[in-house]
Amino acid sequence: MNTYFVTEDDSDYSQVFIIRAETAEAAVQAHVSEQSYDAYELEQGPFTVYEPKVNVKTYGFDVTPLWLRSHETPSGIQAPVASRGRLFYFFDEGLIGITDERLPDRWSLVCRDAFNGKLLWKRPLDAWGWRQWNRQRWEGKNWTTLRAGRTDVPGENQRRIVADADRLYTTLAYRAPMSILDAATGDLITTIEATAGTREILVSDGIAVAYTRQVPEDIAQRRGTADDAATQLVAVDGRTAKVLWRKPSGPIRPLALAIDNGRIVYLTGRDMVALDLKDGRRLWKVRPKSHTPRALLTVDDVIVMQGGTHVAAYDAADGSLLWEKKVGRIVGGEGDDLFVVDGLVWRGMASVDDKGKQVGKSPNAPHLMKKEGNYPGPKKGNTKSAFSKGAIFVRHGAKSAPATRHDIKRI
């Protein structure tokens, strides 16, 4: 999967996300939406797909280093986003090819020109890496025997960077408060101390919302603080940096926090809760028929949730169930992918046999993109047809095998 950016003479900047086809031809269209944050307020999820128009493979660029440190250590690139012709991401520049805990991580927040890859600015991060999020697993262990370390990264790390016009919202350490930077220079504008322990950042309508969660030792140092202060949602005016409101939230599942049409929706415990973005007042609270939900999106006043063997859609106005569908379980260490394209819900990759029947994970099993339902049309949740592997998704690790294809037309 590659990202390309295209500009036109009559435009200051134009961005597009390209999914490379097997023929290496790219789909291009100018004046399109940016990917300025991880998916929480997108109409289709964390990507944009376009029909092939022209071949722009010469627009790609490579920047060093060309490899991450190791396939079996925590992934060295995190939270990539793009806005106004710039790419932003966290990157580990530690020594490549040697896995040893004695070799330190060297994490930085990087900004590059999205058209040519030129480094625009870089800021070293404080206290970021496996020692902060999973010291127990890695410290003092024989790293040559550890496997699947690339998946040992908190999913919420992908929500640590948001680009909004000329400002960048991020954390400059793993347990740091939210900081606001100048997106063009990387200069620090301000740090919002009220957001200490930020785990995820969302921005909508000029309001930045930080989900904060402090570790027990941090709480113990704050005498007289109630337990529910350990997990909060804090809303901040993006221009003035003024705290607009804060609300105890309870522990929120990673990547189960979203914004849609002035509503904040999140999962805490067994409950799904909606708050008003402007003042933080509770709009509703329901207990969905969830089955260990692992992904949540909000689109066009519809909440789509998946986890385990179920996908469900809820009305964002009151939390009522629209439809629910039983599906095959997605296996593997990665997070659950969930997308919405043209009114259809798409799940992540699933392992299938040559006839397209889902099977348990195996080294040679082809991975297919499964579409689970449409909303909120007259046939809510009905499964559509299958699609051929090609320009949209390319399976990983499988031998040549047909993929499935699904109609992406709205009913």
UniProtKB/TrEMBL annotation:
Protein name per its UniProtKB record: Pyrrolo-quinoline quinone repeat domain-containing protein
Domain Pyrrolo-quinoline quinone repeat: 229-329
One Pfam family cited in the UniProt record for this chain: PQQ_2
SUPFAM superfamilies linked to this entry: Quinoprotein alcohol dehydrogenase-like (SSF50998)
Region feature (Disordered): 354-383
Gene3D superfamilies linked to this entry: YVTN repeat-like/Quinoprotein amine dehydrogenase (2.130.10.10)
